[in-house]
Design goal:
Layout lengths: L1 H15 L7 H6 L1 H4 L6 E7 L4 E6 L8 E3 L1 E2 L4 E3 L8 E13 L4 E8 L9 E2 L5 E8 L1 H7 L9 H15 L5 H15 L2
Parallel strand pairs: 1-9
Antiparallel strand pairs: 1-5, 2-3, 2-6, 4-5, 6-7, 6-8
Helix pairs in contact: 5-6
Length: about 190
């Protein structure tokens, strides 16, 4: 019965646009207010530009939450800091699909079933950074599974971290981001 209440609450957050979704500029100004590396997880990754997605927190042991992906550059996105161990399910996606043989572009929107999709994720139980990955949204949807954009995930993550570092300068996240950059650079030597 409790699960049904969570599903209904999540659906209301999704449809009514409630929750903790905030514009990037406000997200970055309030990063430390929304969570720190000691008590939160910062989710980041890369996804094909021109997409919009949101995620709904579905684990009833955590507060209800809705997160829109916020682009920091053409490909790199992040979410506001979230609770460690929380479960986010894809709720809505909107993308530009270009069909060359037609010569026109179409915007395709869709709601994902809240029972699960290939885009869902659970944040690590330990606070800090979480690299979601680097995916080609259009190819992924065509093939019914997540399709990575590059064979070198360390390079992709490093690109994301460089964007995050610029955006989260002078917040408590800056040192954690730099530490992960140093780790990745050390692994590539």
């Amino acid at each position: 019965m409790k699960k049904n209440y969570v599903m209904v609450a999540a659906l209301l957050f999704l449809v009514l646009g409630l929750g903790n979704s905030v514009p990037v500029s406000k997200l970055l100004k309030t990063a430390d207010e929304r969570g720190t590396p000691e008590n939160s997880v910062l989710v980041y990754g890369k996804i094909t530009p021109g997409n919009e997605m949101n995620f709904v927190q579905m684990d009833s042991s955590f507060p209800a939450d809705r997160q829109d992906i916020e682009f920091l550059s053409d490909w790199v996105f992040c979410l506001a800091p979230v609770a460690p161990g929380s479960l986010y399910m894809a709720g809505y996606a909107n993308t530009m699909i270009i069909k060359k043989f037609i010569g026109r572009s179409f915007s395709v929107s869709g709601f994902y079933p809240l029972s699960g999709s290939m885009w869902d994720f659970r944040t690590p139980s330990k606070p800090g950074l979480y690299y979601y990955g680097s995916y080609d949204f259009i190819k992924s949807n065509e093939e019914g599974e997540r399709v990575t954009t590059n064979a070198d995930p360390k390079k992709e993550e490093l690109e994301c971290l460089k964007e995050l570092k610029k955006e989260f300068k002078k917040t408590s996240w800056e040192g954690v981001i730099q530490k992960r950059i140093d780790e990745l650079k050390g692994e590539s030597k």
